[in-house]
Amino acid sequence: MRYTYAFEKMTVWQTARQVVKLIYLKTKSFPKEEAFGVTSQIRRAGISICCNLAEGSARINPPDQNRFYEIAFGSAVEVVNLLILCNDLEYLSDEDYALVRTEMEKLTYQINNLSGKKPPNTLNEPDAPPYGVDKS
């Protein structure tokens, strides 16, 4: 029988896992010269989210656990930053940008709510607004 780890049962980890798959799918068409640049960076940041959620779930001490969740949140914001830059550089279409951005907003909302307490300036649940992109 296969053991199921606690992180595998976490909705937020499952969301992060799907986002990583989406990031890999959408970055396949990035320029070859970016293989060790932005392509690698956005993929690694996505993987970092999943890894920190998993590692945090294995911690017994809540402050220790929350530290890993904070790192996961930081990696998620890094992904959002890279999405914006990739869209600016026209590596990512406006449609793909909006799709992944919406998923990232859902994910950051879930991560932000893991600790059970909301710090100042927290995120509200996303309404999934349409994104107008200024290419100037």
Question: Could you explain how this protein is built, in words?
Answer:
The protein has 136 residues and is an all-alpha fold. It has one domain: 23S rRNA-intervening sequence (de novo design (two linked rop proteins)). The chain is 61% helix and 0% strand. The chain has helices at 11-27, 38-57, 62-88, 94-112. Helix 1 runs antiparallel to helix 2, helix 1 (11-27) runs antiparallel to helix 4 and helix 3 (62-88) runs antiparallel to helix 4 (94-112). It is elongated.
Helix and strand sequence: HHHH
Name the average pLDDT. Answer: 90
CATH class: Mainly Alpha
| CATH architecture descriptor name | Up-down Bundle
Short description:
The chain has 136 residues and is an all-alpha fold. It has one domain (8-112): 23S rRNA-intervening sequence (de novo design (two linked rop proteins)).
Could you outline the blueprint of secondary structure elements for this entry?
Layout: H1 11-27, H2 38-57, H3 62-88, H4 94-112
Helix pairs in contact: 1-2, 1-4, 2-3, 3-4
